[in-house]
Design goal:
- This protein has about 325 residues and is an alpha+beta fold.
- The chain folds into 3 domains: about 70 residues, Elongation Factor G (Translational Gtpase), domain 3 (Alpha-Beta Plaits, 2-Layer Sandwich), CATH 3.30.70.870; about 130 residues, Ribosomal Protein S5, domain 2 (2-Layer Sandwich); about 80 residues, Alpha-Beta Plaits (2-Layer Sandwich), CATH 3.30.70.
- Helix content is about 35%, strand content about 35%.
- Strands 5, 9, 11, 12, 13 and 14 form a 6-stranded mixed β-sheet that branches.
- A hairpin with a 6-residue loop joins strand 6 and strand 7.
- Helix 1 packs across helix 2 and helix 4 packs across helix 5.
Length: about 325
Amino acid sequence: MSSMFVPDAVVSLAITPKTKDAANFSKAVNRFQKEDPTFRVHYDKESKETIISGMGELHLEIYVERMKREYNVECTVGRPRVSYRESVLGKSNFDYTHKKQSGGAGQFAKVMGEFEATSLADPEEIGITAEEDAQVKNVFQTKIIGGKISEKFLLACQKGFEDCCEKGPLTGSRVLGVHMTVNDGATHVVDSSEMAFRTATQFAFKQAFFASQPVILEPIMNVVITAPMEFQGNVIGLVNKLQGIINDTENNADDFTITSDCSLNNLFGIASSLRAVTQGKGEFTMEFKEYQPAPPQLQKQLIEDYQKKQKKE
């Protein structure tokens, strides 16, 4: 039997039960996850929130309603958060020395190398096959000659790289499509440790990330809308209002189908907007297509919001 295709969740909501009845809340969440593989739940340690993710607003609304009806758990729900990603468009070199001296053994690590977008690197050299997408794959490589940095320290460097990919420097989102090569460095007989190299790699990553044209990526959805012919003008108007790009229009005897690419950030509330312009006769499906750079104004706003949040903490 071929395994079932479960698409990635596209919309996330922060959810908190109003009552302190945690047992029923977790019972409900566990049952819903068992019956629906596209419904995901995780606890975000950073924001201290329980996040539910699914295929769309309506999908999540139904589960919130079912919790209330079947398990008697009322929940407060936050505005859906779009899963942004971070990446770079250019390349740069880094040279970072981490030094710390405080009585006794200090910390010392020096890493040097190159940092670039994975799509700019040679696929064969970094081991990316044709099926893999260079835009989303993170690659860490070491090209140390003459054992300047020992193997265990290089493993610590890789861990530092992976830590940074989990939480990017711009907005704390995951990093996609970056390639980091450590090709030189220095160690100290006493002060060098795995911790020092891990920290040095993290700082080098941030330094190089900001020097390589950093960019915030937003999810672009493939939206297919079907409605009766009489509403064609209204639906095209709606797609334009959502700043969508129409790729294809197919007209049948009674209805038409429009295929378009829209940014997920503009799609909240599309269900009710579509009902309004088609007298409830239109329907739509949407599926994640790819990540693309977000508009400059939005990027600026997201970075400012993240910095404010960091200061509060």
